[in-house]
């Protein structure tokens, strides 16, 4: 399944299990020797919510949250009759998110996710800084000084605003250097953003543990929050990613939730022995 091209292999583990989830993620995410994807997502019965999402990046590392993935989880459980509710709760590493699905011909087409409030405290993101918030702060990467705004949406993001189109930006070179910069103790996802106008952002993303992906839901949320904090856009924006568009809204008030609306698409289903 994919959300705006951010694709994962999903496993229904409400009745079965995978012995080594991390190893499965590495093997199956390989686009040449596996199925291919940005990682795998395992759907389980929830303890604190209707369902649990267990997400692994392509390198086998565990991910705390995936905004595109959680929409697809909601689509899977509804489309396959695991629930008949159109308001679904899903937990991931202790955090519970709430998803409202929109259906067409009995199948989920889009979903709106309450992504919770953004984390702006530098220690909790985490990013090493002597300031409580990192907003438009300089960081030097490969000899170039960038201004970054750091936000966590359950996972760390460094948002960098650039003048030219992100499509022209040397992401393959700069992305890994941001991800592994010592200022980020747990590594980071990095979004490179061009402000089109007050209602539209253009984005490319380098994801921690996966490299460039066509979309990142938490990254789109973090980018909208960063743009609002910097006064670049209004409280509701469309983020244009390589794989499609996401609508993000945030009041600008710390403690208020960020809401993300976007598509969820099934590509194929099958069985594999692990």
Describe the overall structure.
The relative contact order is 0.16. Helix content is 16%, strand content 38%. The protein has a 16-stranded mixed beta sheet that branches. Strands 1-2 form a two-stranded antiparallel sheet. With 274 residues, the chain is α+β, with helices and mostly antiparallel strands. The protein has helices at residues 21-29, 67-79, 171-179, 217-229; strands at 2-3, 6-7, 9-12, 39-45, 51-57, 62-63, 87-92, 95-104, 107-114, 137-141, 144-152, 156-161, 189-197, 200-207, 211-213, 236-241, 244-249, 259-263. It is globular.
Highlighted features:
globular; 274 residues; two-stranded antiparallel sheet; 16-stranded mixed sheet; 16% helix; alpha+beta
Itemize the secondary structure elements and their pairings:
Layout: E1 2-3, E2 6-7, E3 9-12, H1 21-29, E4 39-45, E5 51-57, E6 62-63, H2 67-79, E7 87-92, E8 95-104, E9 107-114, E10 137-141, E11 144-152, E12 156-161, H3 171-179, E13 189-197, E14 200-207, E15 211-213, H4 217-229, E16 236-241, E17 244-249, E18 259-263
Parallel strand pairs: 3-4, 5-7, 12-13, 14-16
Antiparallel strand pairs: 1-2, 4-5, 5-6, 7-8, 8-9, 9-18, 10-11, 11-12, 13-14, 14-15, 16-17, 17-18
Provide a brief overview of the structure.
The chain is an alpha+beta fold and 274 residues long. It has helices spanning 21-29, 67-79, 171-179, 217-229; strands at residues 2-3, 6-7, 9-12, 39-45, 51-57, 62-63, 87-92, 95-104, 107-114, 137-141, 144-152, 156-161, 189-197, 200-207, 211-213, 236-241, 244-249, 259-263.
């Amino acid at each position: 399944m994919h959300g705006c091209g951010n694709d994962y292999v999903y496993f229904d583990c409400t009745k079965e299990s995978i012995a080594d989830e991390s190893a499965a993620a590495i093997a199956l995410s390989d686009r040449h020797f596996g199925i291919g994807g940005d990682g795998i997502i395992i759907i389980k019965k929830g303890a604190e919510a209707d369902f649990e999402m267990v997400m692994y990046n392509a390198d086998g590392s565990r991910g705390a949250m995936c905004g595109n993935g959680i929409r697809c989880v909601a689509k899977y459980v509804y489309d396959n009759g695991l629930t008949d509710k159109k308001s679904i709760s899903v937990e991931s590493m202790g955090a519970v998110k709430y998803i409202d699905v929109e259906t067409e011909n009995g199948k989920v087409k889009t979903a709106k996710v309450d992504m919770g409030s953004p984390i702006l405290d530098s220690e909790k993101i985490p990013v090493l800084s002597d300031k409580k918030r990192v907003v438009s702060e300089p960081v030097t990467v490969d000899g170039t000084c960038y201004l970054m705004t750091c936000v966590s949406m359950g996972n760390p993001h460094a948002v960098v605003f650039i003048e030219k189109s992100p499509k022209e930006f040397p992401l393959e070179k700069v992305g890994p250097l941001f991800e592994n910069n010592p200022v980020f103790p747990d590594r980071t996802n990095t979004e490179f953003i061009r402000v089109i106008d007050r209602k539209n952002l253009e984005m490319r993303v380098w994801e921690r543990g996966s490299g460039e992906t066509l979309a990142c839901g938490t990254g789109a949320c973090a980018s909208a929050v960063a743009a609002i904090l910097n006064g670049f856009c209004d409280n509701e924006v469309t983020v244009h990613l390589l794989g499609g568009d996401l609508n993000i809204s945030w009041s600008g008030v710390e403690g208020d939730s960020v809401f993300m609306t976007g598509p969820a698409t099934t590509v194929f289903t099958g069985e594999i022995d692990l």
